[in-house]
Design goal:
By secondary structure, this protein is α/β, with parallel strands linked by helices.
Length: 470
Amino acid sequence: MNDPTRHPAYSIDRSQLGAVEINPVFARPAEATEFSKFRLPASESLPETAYQVVHDEAMLDGNARLNLATFVGTWMDDYANRLYAESADKNMIDKDEYPKTAEIETRCWMMLADLWHAPDPDNTIGTSTIGSSEACMLGGLALKRRWQHARKAAGKPTDHPNMVMSSAVQVCWEKFCNYWDIEPRYVPISEDHKVLDGANLADYVDENTIGVVAIMGVTYTGMYEPVKQIAAALDEIQERTGLDVKIHVDAASGGMIAPFIQPDLEWDFRIERVASINTSGHKYGLVYPGLGWVVWRSVDDLPEDLIFKVSYLGGDMPTFALNFSRPGAQVLLQYYMFLRLGMDGFRRVQANSHDVAKFLSSQIGAMDDFELWNDGSDIPVFAWRLKDRPNRKWDLYDLSERLRTRGWLVPAYPMPADLTDVTVQRIVVRNGLSHDLADAFLESMRAEVAYLDALPAPMPSQHKQSGFHH
């Protein structure tokens, strides 16, 4: 019999191939007393029993509110939870059956087009996605197809496309280049160039470049890449070579931060070279996972031959997506948040997260052991590293493990290629991390640093590993 757990991608410890025992307190007469972990049970169980088993397994997960590693939203209010339960059965692709949900999806991306200063928000195009990873891939596919059309029209080959990006890009861009046969050209970050900033860009761009990715909120550190500066470098390249290279802005986080707390920062469609922008509704869009958005500057920036006209359940609808059936509930939740908060509400929520991040970074930066890599001035995310100190018996991996014993998830990880000798820790401040919780975290951190400093010998190191979380 084919055993899927033998596939290396599963990486299952064979010793775990046992059973889940049922507590006699809630086991019912004539029911099984255990469930196989990796095989369908032979018979049914009562819903109360199945619920209790799953509930007890899931409660072993960490406390989401204390997870300072993730960008993904972990809290919504009671009205949002009610709306979520009411709309959990809606399939976003079935726009004929759920026309109002489809209309609300359009309202949302048009609001984003306006928020991001599209020249004509009523004459652009966008879509919801399953997170920013899908949104990034759609933006990248549009760039590739436009490049192919231009090359074919000029009678030139289309077999060696490349894309230019920072070495600190999110892994979805590595996947995009791998899955769609595109050469990734990584511009390394360094102590002098902590983000992609346009320096030496001409060394990476050529006639086969489909586009440049600029990140509004690098996942490693939270820093913005200066889109306007990158565009200026591409303008100079065009003047010299004639190459017209467009920008896709990966604003998974910053797309829902910058418009509210840095409104004068030019990074969006105000820059003519920006062709498309994505964001995560489930990050600073304040919605549960998973929801993303992608918007193009105009309808002309999304090639028509990428859009499918699908006849589905009695309706004819256009679709541009990697997924087909997907939840509609998160789209409704996004619309709820737009109506619930408006511009002023989003400004207050994001400003509060920003204030907490600046407070935390200032306190951590003032500690003797730490040096800030950045201070959370961009999105409410910051990173720090250890100062050089002779005879220190611990490192950031040790501190990360000690904080975990108190419930706090704060990852430690090496920086990307060409800076892998630098290890940092990072905090993501999201809605729900209050000043009181920040004080509680600092109390825990100071206590754990004192504990580590008092050690008579170094911590065991054989189990240390990167705790990097996108």
